[in-house]
Amino acid sequence: MATAEVSGIRRKRRRSNRGPRTPYALIAPAVLLMLGFLVYPMASIFYYSLQHYNVTKPWDNGFAGLDNFRQMFGDDLFWQSLGFSAKWVAATVGFQLLLGLGLALLVNESFVGRALSRALVFSPWAVSGVLTTSIWVLLYNPTTGFTKYLADLGLVQHGSSPLADPSAVFPAAVLTELWRGVPFFAILLLADLQSIPKDLYEASSVDGASRLRRFWHITLPHLRDAIVLSTLLRAVWEFNNVDLLYTLTNGGPANQTTTLPLYVAHKATVAHEFGYGSALTAAAFFILLFCSILYLRLSKFGGDRK
Amino acid sequence: MTRLTTKTAGGQADAEAPDPAAAPPRPPAARRRAAVKRRRNDENVRKWEIWLPLGLYLLFTLIPFYWMLLYAFRPNGTTGLAPWPLTLDHLRHVWTDIGFGTYFANSVKVGVISMFATTFVALAGGYGLARYDFRGRKTFMLAMLCTQFIPGALMLVPLFEIFKKLELVNSLWSVIVAETVFQLPLSLILISGFIRNVPMELEEAAWVDGASRLRGFLVTVLPLLRPGLIAVSSFAFIHSWNHFLFALMFLSDQEKYTVPVGLSYTIGESGSDLGSLAAGGVVAALPVIVIFALIQRYLVKGLSAGAVKG
């Protein structure tokens, strides 16, 4: 890391003979856009979380103190949606990581047709949540869909759509999300796999290490930071993911697949309880932030590298 | 820094020269090592060990795509497993009658404008972050990481109120601005990582030759950023092409809908007409799949050039 220090010193020296305003001018457009359309709305959410604010009941509007948060603690649907969010994030991210890692290892081997295989298995990465839904609605269609063929083989029941069946809807939604989500992990982890120096493997294979040992002692430690970062980014992304569940199940059947963001969107847009919706949003933000910091701490991100 | 540069070089060599025989002659020791390695690979990883899991995964990936094509090109009422007799009726129906032609034009407009806006703003900011040390730099970086925890879906209402004040509701510009802003932090972080991987000495050499800071950047850094910029700007395009919620909430005229919004209404009404749903899916998929096919080589390379660790 000596080079980093040197370039740091150099950078400082450079700054002194240039006007100090240049970097601010360079980041100004980004800062202004983010202030106006990210920071300000976020701040207004914190503000409204302490207000009674419902456009259909304007006579009640006004300062609420912590009323909204008190209401939240007694709201069964809040706890249910939070629980489902946790379950959803754990299942989707866990399986995506496992399959993505496996896939990255596979397409990192050299074999004939590798480039084409890579392109094909990565392709669902580019597909939207709504499109994913429309494809899987076709597959899950009980009369003409793929499920009919599975039913013909006796694997599932005839005439039932997994999306309408309370016991099948969760695995069905997770499977749908995996189809689109696994390539994200595979792409990121493949990028990192390619950066492992080849001589490490050669040295260890000369020493007679088995493939499993090499994976455990070389590949996995090298990928650690990438795994931590990609699972974190993906967990936040899955927590906030609305497109797929909104179109696939719309939170149903019987609110079984309502995540916290879906519940908030419903509160804010359908029930017009914007004050309460803002309190839920603020809670979601802090829960995410807390979990992320905890995760980074526990995983000792960047630990022995620095 | 040195580590990162060698890393990129390694990644490229691996991607572009999979066949050791095509490489220029190497010293005997290296050749022997390569031979040993190749033999070990043959011993250790047998063909079926790759193709069996990969084949299964390929089926999982491709059957859904095939299923969509099947419904899109098969006449209603037939149930064969091949789209035969082939019909373009569904496609024609969604493009002209349902209005996917209009949605498509809207989505292209949103996607292209927000792609250019994101890339330019992120390029300027990324250069500032990578090459200058200024007060507030750390705070700015931290703030950008924090934005990743803001649930975009939960910002709908405050954003809606802002756009109402700006009189942009039901205008494509509201969607363009929102998509650009939500793409910015990640693009900025990625681009500043790419720029940091370009040795400062290259720029300095250009200044010694009398080039201005801007010219130095354009001549030395920009060409080297090409793979990274292609990756980032196509992320931005694909993201805003695919993103659904802002367009759903901000646009109320059917004339203004983007493709995902149109598609979501088709899903709602698909009970009877699966052919139209599938054909709408084909319209939604075509541009991103084409772009993906063009850029997927850069995707892994662009990321290995420092996205994760940058």
UniProtKB/TrEMBL annotation, chain B:
Sorted UniProt keywords: Cell membrane, Membrane, Transmembrane, Transmembrane helix, Transport
Family annotation (InterPro entries): BP-dep_ABC_trans_perm, MetI-like, MetI-like_sf
Pfam families, per database record: BPD_transp_1 (PF00528)
Transmembrane segments: 48-69, 110-130, 142-160, 172-195, 216-241, 274-295
Every ABC transmembrane type-1 domain range: 104-295
Mitochondrion keyword on record: no
Topological type in the membrane: Multi-pass membrane protein
Coiled coil: none
UniProt-annotated location(s): Cell membrane
Family of this protein: Belongs to the binding-protein-dependent transport system permease family.
Protein's UniProt name: Carbohydrate ABC transporter permease
Taxonomic classification: Bacteria, Bacillati, Actinomycetota, Actinomycetes, Streptosporangiales
